[in-house]
Specification:
By secondary structure, this protein is an alpha/beta fold. It is 28% helix and 29% strand. The protein is built from 3 helices and 7 strands, in the order E-E-E-H-E-H-E-H-E-E. Strands 1-2-3-4-5-6-7 form a 7-stranded mixed sheet. The radius of gyration is 14 Å and the shape is globular.
């Protein structure tokens, strides 16, 4: 959780947790970090978490904004998880051209997204976090 986690002595409270996956807020609305594995056993519950987070206001003055996911601690994601990311991006884009921004997606998953063509999904941004957490352009 390099780039989006708040700096605090206490670990953030999980939004969702099972034996394989933990989802935590990073200290900002619209920013979640995933740790562990996404597979058929938890993808539907993760869909509910993402949907609920997408409805939360991004800031006190405005409505919901982009949804950012920190995925650098994600160890495994099956095709159902990849499909969930695509569907979430499409739903956000259809709701006022909002974005799903993926940070720290593993190289093999970026490759899957590119080969299948999902990296060109409207509303989906795949970024690589550079030094000090500044985003750099996606490497496809």
């Amino acid at each position: 959780m390099k780039t989006l986690l708040r700096r605090s002595a206490e670990p953030p409270e999980p939004v969702y947790q099972d034996g394989l996956l933990q989802v935590v807020r990073t200290g900002h609305a619209g920013r979640l970090a995933l740790r562990g594995d996404v597979d058929a056993s938890n993808v539907n519950r993760l869909a509910g978490v993402l949907s609920a987070e997408a409805r939360r206001p991004a800031d006190p003055q405005g409505g919901p904004g982009s949804l950012h996911l920190e995925l650098s601690d994600l160890e495994f994601m099956d095709v159902g998880g990849c499909r969930l990311l695509v569907h979430t991006a499409l739903a956000l884009f259809g709701d006022g051209e909002r974005r799903l921004v993926l940070h720290g997606l593993a190289p093999h998953l970026r490759r899957v997204m590119r080969v299948v063509g999902w990296d060109r999904t409207p509303g989906l941004d795949i970024v690589l976090d550079g030094p000090y957490g500044f985003p750099t352009p996606s490497a496809h």
